[in-house]
Write a structure and sequence with these properties.
- By secondary structure, this protein is mainly alpha-helical.
- The protein is globular, with a radius of gyration of 24 Å.
- Helix content is 50%, strand content 0%.
Amino acid sequence: MRKILVSSFIMGLLACQNTVEAPGIAVDGGLDLPPAADAGPTDLGPLFPSFDAGPPQPVPDAGSTDINDLPPAVFDAGFDEEEVPDDPPEEDYCGRACFGLPCAEECRFFCRFGLVGLQPEDREDYLRCIMDNSCEADSCLEEEPEVPQGCIDLCANRDLERCGVELGDSDQECHLYCRSVLAMMTSPARQAWLDCGVNQCSRRRPVNCDPASFFGPTPSQVCLDVANWRRTCEPNREESLWQDAYECESWRAPADQNNLSGGTHMVNCLREANCGAGGWYQCLVAAATAQGRRQAIVEACAAANECGGETGWNCQLFLTGFTRLMGERGISDLGTCIREAGEDCEAISTCLARNWQSIAAPNDVCRESCLACNDTSDFCLGECMRFRASLTHPQAEAYEGCLLARIRANSCEDVNPVGCIRAALPQVAATCNDYVEHLRDRCANARYYSDVMLNGWCAMGGVRTGLLTPENLRQCVDRTGCAVNTWEACSR
């Protein structure tokens, strides 16, 4: 049962911040590139806009940071949700109820997970029981009768453990915990999770139905369509529909960079693409063509295509603007690096890695800002470089200007790359700060995380694409409460 609450998924999430999300398919890097004739219009400007790499100065306008909300997906697998409570506890009552009692850790664990699955009128009696039985808190749920039929059907599947679902050692425990898990999900996610556990999971197909993958705000309809496309094209995929939908969301370009929205073009294209690598490549070409940069990308990646492996494929993906980590500045820097690398495959590989790994030139502003206060951690340099690569040129100027100003002021308390996010993306910074404060106010265990790290990761997440909004982030925190790793659950 603990695996649901303290999942190892967060470690994978954090570890993945050092890589760019790329499609999970095997593609020959030596692609047969289309001729220049299909390059499309070129009136959107050059691939690598000129940019003075000298010391940037703060600018009053950091560029547009308006983010458009993405309409959430609608999904109905036919399961009845009548017995699932929709009103989460208003605060961490279990933290108070178990505080200072014997077996407090176990008490909080079972109390939080059980409370969220109860109807509001049943919670007061449950909390009284918890306070009288802190070392046997799990026994306080034994006589709760209402169990959704979907949970009964799911728990009857004896292959659940093969599919990453562990909901206790008996049918009774499974029924009770299933209801709690459902209460922490949005309605479309409930339908998708029950569909995964009841209809998809089997001995022959161990699809991943870990409930932790279904928490969080609902993905967009477009990305759910892409996830269905992948399931149709690869019927034996072990990833759940919801996992694929969230991965799709990570491919989007930042919503404030419509001129370089390659990832978003690909997302919109893939929902109706052909299956296999041909569909991916078809959409890659369409995304580059729509931006008027197809021929420039073909020429820039010509040497990379000769290097074998996925080097050529990755070169085209990243120069197209695939993923929210590749903005105007990152594309420009990568293009310059690849030109200077010539035909040196090792140098090209380093170019492809430098925007999202801690690889910087000696005079790089990010490197200097970390060294100014003797911070030689990979987090400091990596976050600075990845965030900068996701920005437009005006945003990057404001960001680097803020870093330089703090270095010159010899203010080590403020010389941190995350502290300058507001200079480049004020709306994103405000949303993330509101989210982090609400999370830490709601759940005391979230206070063990660093504000700096939480805000930094948030600023490169779904807030940039429009998936995560102040409203649905707060709703997610309230819905999942402190029964799970709330940061993991909500930060998509």
